Every structure is written in structure tokens, then in C-alpha cells.
Amino acid sequence: MSTEEFNEDVASYEELHKVREQLGDQIVLLDQQQEETFFVVTELALNNKHYCVLKKTMKKDDDEEFMFIVVEQGAELSIVPIEEENEWELVSEAYDNWLFDHGK
């Protein structure tokens, strides 16, 4: 996806709850043949795409977030990595706005 396809106005994100509703607060992802458990921090709709922010722990001092695209395939949800740096930066900025909006 090219940079031109992104709307730079990240203030217009919408919070979603589809991953939590379907998969719960903790999800297991397969990474290089190894399962890893992540906690769902939030889900954001931005520029007509669905994203989720995950953490390995919910401790306040754990500041490493992982951001993914949520792909809906019928009733199923898939979580795939964000490959474009510009897209990742846009989602990261929207997440920062979400943190500010929620006093975190």
C-alpha cells in the first residue's frame, strides 16, 4: 500500500471490539513455529481498515506494543503483520491518540 493511500488524519479512529468478542482478551499467535500469547490492548478502525494492538503482558512498565491488521474472512478473523512502515507509523500515532484519550 502506498503512502498516498493513507489518510493522515489519525484523529478520526474508531475503537472496535471484534477481536475480543471473537477471540477473547488473550490470543495465541504462531511466530516462526513457536506459539506466543498476547493480550489485546485495543482495536482501532482507521482509514477503512481494522487494526489491533497487542502486548505480551499487561504490566504498566511493559511498553512494547505489537500492531497488526485484522482481516475479516466471513465470520473468521485473521491477524496479520503490518508490512508497510508508513502504515505502521500511522497506526502507532492513532494508538498514541487512543492512549491520550483514555488517560493512559
Structure write-up:
With 104 residues, the protein is of the alpha+beta class. The protein has one domain. The protein has 2 helices and 6 strands. Strands 1, 2, 3, 4, 5 and 6 form a 6-stranded antiparallel beta sheet that branches. The model has no long low-confidence stretch (mean pLDDT 87).
List keywords for this structure.
2 helices; about 20% helix; alpha+beta; about 100 residues; 6-stranded antiparallel sheet
Task: Describe what is shown at a glance.
The protein has 104 residues and is an alpha+beta fold. Helices cover 22% and strands 41% of the residues.
- Helical segment tally? 2
Span from first to last CA? 31 Å
| Rg result | 13 Å
What ranges have pLDDT less than 50 throughout 5 or more consecutive residues? none
| DSSP strand tally | 6
Structural class, judged by helices and strands?
alpha+beta
Please provide the ordered H/E string of secondary-structure elements: EHEEEEEH
The domain tally reads: 1
Query: Sheet bearing the most strands, described?
Result: 6 strands, antiparallel
Q: Average pLDDT across residues?
A: 87
Could you give the topology of this structure?
Blueprint: E1 14-16, H1 18-23, E2 26-31, E3 34-46, E4 49-55, E5 66-73, E6 76-81, H2 85-101
Antiparallel strand pairs: 1-3, 2-3, 3-4, 4-5, 5-6
